[in-house]
Amino acid sequence: MKIAVMGAGALGGYFGGRLAAAGQEVTLIARGAHLAALRARGLKILSPRGNLHLPAIPATDDPGAVGPVDVIMFMVKNYDVESGARAIAPMLGPQTMVVTCQNGVSAHERLGAIIGARRVVPGVARIPAHVAEPGVIDHSAMWDRLTFGEADGRVTARVEGFRDAILAAGATAVLPDNILHDLWKKFISQATLASMTTLTRLDLGPLRANPDSRALFVAAMEETERVGRAVVHDLPGGLVQKEWEILDTLPDTMHASMLDDLNAGKRLEVDYLSGDVVRLGRKHGVPTPIHNVLWAALQPLKDGAPPRLANAD
Ligand SMILES: NC(=O)C1=CN([C@@H]2O[C@H](COP(=O)(O)OP(=O)(O)OC[C@H]3O[C@@H](n4cnc5c(N)ncnc54)[C@H](OP(=O)(O)O)[C@@H]3O)[C@@H](O)[C@H]2O)C=CC1
Ligand SMILES: CC(C)(CO)C(=O)C(=O)O
């Protein structure tokens, strides 16, 4: 299978590396110091599921040099979806499938508006990872799950084939009954996890242990669930509780990738997390006071390179 990874950072490097190690024809699309390191030293993955070093994995910043592929793993951040969508044009053949992984609920629609919805297979990733240094992906827990499926719920040969390729590579792939439900299920916890860990600069452990911050966490998730129910009328019940069954099993040191982004001086995806809770709440007449505070409080940090803390000295 010919696979291109558009945005071979934390997630793209992880899944692209596993697929390449399993013999798939993978090209990483990257840029800057990360691309230079990939070319000079190859890709390294540090992972409890097994470390990996691929010294000669193909990497480029030029999708035109790759040409049409079977699958594009579209793994840029939310704020790069539109520019990334335009950049992948030379890799789109008549049958190319483009699988997403972005947190939030809007990336697949924004991508589809540019490249055509029929090409897009929405996905949800459950895998904690970050780029520890250029060329090196640090995957910090056992889970490495990519759930994806056709937006209309059909189980097609293209999604089955790609699921089998990921499973053969030793990572986890799931075809759900309804990918839109899965997107919202994760969004209900992720929008809150991202904003609360980033705003407080704390891991999940202390936020979950303190009764007041836990209550705020739960209320923010319930707010998102109410918005979800207004947007997707057949969203199953009990999603907040189901997400807490996951949150309560995570290590104390778990935090959202958005906190890693803050610490690395990168841009934040907050407009697509708490920001989209607020935006969709307004659109559907559902009040979102908690996410409005979380979203607004993070605005001064969202463009990256956080201002010097007033009391840092
Ligand atoms: N990291 C995690 O633990 C998880 C992340 N997610 C979601 O997955 C998505 C990807 O996250 P993550 O992997 O952490 O992000 P990263 O920033 O690690 O990776 C994205 C990569 O895409 C590169 N990129 C963007 N545009 C281009 C371009 N035009 N050409 C070449 N390279 C490009 C970026 O380069 P540059 O750095 O120069 O911008 C970066 O290296 C996010 O939406 C996130 O919400 C979901 C679950 C877990
Ligand atoms: C919480 C985690 C790491 C789970 O996959 C995540 O999705 C993120 O923070 O982006």
UniProtKB/TrEMBL annotation:
SUPFAM superfamilies, per the entry: 6-phosphogluconate dehydrogenase C-terminal domain-like, NAD(P)-binding Rossmann-fold domains
Keyword Secreted: no
Ketopantoate reductase N-terminal domain mapped to chain residues: 3-152
Boundaries of every Ketopantoate reductase C-terminal domain copy: 178-300
Pfam families according to UniProt: ApbA, ApbA_C
InterPro entries tied to this protein: 6-PGluconate_DH-like_C_sf, 6PGD_dom2, ApbA, KPA_reductase, KPR-Related, KPR_N, NAD(P)-bd_dom_sf
Gene3D superfamilies named among the record's database cross-references: N-(1-d-carboxylethyl)-l-norvaline Dehydrogenase, domain 2, NAD(P)-binding Rossmann-like Domain
EC number per UniProt: 1.1.1.169
Assigned keywords, A-Z: NADP, Oxidoreductase, Pantothenate biosynthesis
Highest taxon listed in the record's lineage: Bacteria
The protein's annotated pathway: Cofactor biosynthesis; (R)-pantothenate biosynthesis; (R)-pantoate from 3-methyl-2-oxobutanoate: step 2/2
Reactions listed under catalytic activity: (R)-pantoate + NADP(+) = 2-dehydropantoate + NADPH + H(+)
Group of enzyme by EC: oxidoreductase
NCBIfam families named among the record's database cross-references: apbA_panE
Its job: Catalyzes the NADPH-dependent reduction of ketopantoate into pantoic acid.
Family: Belongs to the ketopantoate reductase family.
Protein name: 2-dehydropantoate 2-reductase
